[in-house]
Amino acid sequence: MEAALGLMRRMPPSLSRTALSSLLLLLPDHSSELLSLVDQPLEVLWDEGCGKQFLLCDYNRDGDSHRSPWSNTYHPPLEDGVLPPAHLRDLEVEANEIFALYRDQYYEGGISSVYLWETDSPEGFAACFLIKKDGSRTGEGRRGLLEQGLWDAIHVIEVEKANDETTAHYCLTSTVMLSMKSATGFQGSFDLSGSITRQMEADLSLSEGHLSNMGRMIEDMESKLRNGLDQVYFGKTREMVFTLREPLDTLTATSATGQSIQHEVINDIVRSRT
Amino acid sequence: MDPTGPVGEELSDEQKIRIAKWFLLNSPPGEIQYVAKDLQGVLSNDVIYQAAAREAFPIHNKEQLLSVEMSDGSGHVLVCQYGEISINHFIELRTAQVATINHIKQVCTGVRLATDSELPSTYPEGYRSAIDSEVMRYVEEAFPAGHCAVYVTKGKDVDDSGCFELTIVISSAKLSPKNFCNGRWRSIWVAQFDNGLRTVELKGHIKISAHYFEDGNVQLDTVYDDKESTILQGPSETASAVVTIIQNFESAYLACLEDCYSKLSDNTFKELRRKLPITRTLFPWHTARQLSMNRELTREMSNK
């Protein structure tokens, strides 16, 4: 298992789907463990009744069917598919509505789904917030800068009521996977792809409800992940490029090299005249 | 390409070898030994691993333009298709030697002098060695860990009226697994020498790969092709013209990448997710329920 995860950490993130399906073939006995430990780009299904798309993950799957958060029905149809208890379903409906607003403000498009389920801890539950965005020029990219641009975010939160009844304990695990391919203006391509996972825990007052607490944690985490990818991870690859090949001084009248040549030429002229 | 093929009940050894090869071939720069180790753990079958490694390592090493120190300490030899004499023998023209390469260990195990028939004739060699010195000068200046070689890839035995082709290879790797980052620059320039037209046509192919993997996995891959030509003169004039072209193109490409990176944070990344909503304030979770109801209301009103 350790070796399999090691391989996933080294294979190009843009090929992670192929890498995982290969590992599943080599290690059929570890398939459920692999599927739960390795995050994959999210798949989409169409809920015809509601005219809306929803995202698939292990938490809305029963057999080969997936439950839509919009209609609470399984696709393809499944009799006796597992449903969340009524009080969680109410929260789930509200979470999906509000998370769609949040998604619209940050992503200017995309698809989101939220799923809730019961856990073993008394009065506790868990939730999974999913977002997928295709930012390519043929997708929902507003500025037409990307040939290909995919963002998948998976946030899983476990919630436990504290003893004092007024606060709850939240444990958030988030993964972001992205791949960007932009045209460089030259006859070339520029591909960046990656995935990172982070955890965050907090004890929060219940005065504004679970949804606000979970939402703020996710918003904070997404900003941190985006910033980390942008500043640290992309920054490191940039640093690498300029370590491999140093940007040489271009020869212009104002550059250091240009100036020193100018001096030499002037000195030569002065010398030849004296 | 999907190495898995149709899903069967039990994988044949052949399918397992194909999958193992796929992992090895997709190793980031300088990481094939780590991938190999993990792969051995996953396969737990040495026969299958060895079969995959035998096929994958030579391909990977040549694709990566691996530079290996020669066993007699006389310099480096590049493992690449242009200098390939046989699967594990590669020519190094600066010292006129042929190096024996152990692909799986990625080391040179011996060298011998090249035979006359393995070396280019006097006329193309004049140009080859002139360009080699110029490229070495450029690589020393621009690539802190760079290695380069120039090969006669066509018309090796022509006399001074014939046409021939030189291939210039530059490979520069920075491997620091302790700092969780590895990267490689590869450029291949093919120069066609046409004695009738008195021209040299240059075609360049540059590839950069970078991998950063501290608590994550982020990879950069860029490819860039271009071409240019110059007039055919004597060896030293031609060498200087050719290497000036290469140097200028590679500098311009680097500037172009810098431009890509500078736009990334504020423009390109926004296509995926904004730093903040258009309102420039955090999402109003406390009033979101109200917001959601308002939106429903607006939708209902507009439907009427």
Automatic annotation (TrEMBL), chain A:
GO cellular component entries: cytoplasm; F-actin capping protein complex
Gene3D superfamilies, per database record: 1.20.58.570, F-actin capping protein, beta subunit (3.90.1150.210)
Coiled-coil stretches: none
One of the Pfam families matching this protein, by short name: F_actin_cap_B
Keyword Transcription regulation: no
Any Gene Ontology biological process: cell morphogenesis
Family matches, as SUPFAM superfamilies: Subunits of heterodimeric actin filament capping protein Capz
Family: Belongs to the F-actin-capping protein beta subunit family.
The protein's name: F-actin-capping protein subunit beta
Species of provenance: Ceratopteris richardii (Triangle waterfern)
TrEMBL record, chain B:
Alphabetized PROSITE patterns for the sequence: F_ACTIN_CAPPING_A_1, F_ACTIN_CAPPING_A_2
GO function term, MF aspect, one: actin filament binding
Known role: F-actin-capping proteins bind in a Ca(2+)-independent manner to the fast growing ends of actin filaments (barbed end) thereby blocking the exchange of subunits at these ends. Unlike other capping proteins (such as gelsolin and severin), these proteins do not sever actin filaments.
Family: Belongs to the F-actin-capping protein alpha subunit family.
A Pfam family of this chain: F-actin_cap_A
GO cellular component: cortical cytoskeleton; F-actin capping protein complex
Source organism, top-level taxon: Eukaryota
Signal peptide (UniProt feature, chain positions): none
InterPro entries, per the entry: CapZ_alpha, CapZ_alpha/beta, CapZ_alpha/beta_2, CapZ_alpha_1, F-actin_cap_asu_CS
GO terms under biological process: actin cytoskeleton organization; barbed-end actin filament capping
Known partners and oligomeric status: Heterodimer of an alpha and a beta subunit.
UniProt keyword terms in alphabetical order: Actin capping, Actin-binding
Keyword Iron-sulfur: no
Record PANTHER family: F-ACTIN-CAPPING PROTEIN SUBUNIT ALPHA
Full protein name: F-actin-capping protein subunit alpha
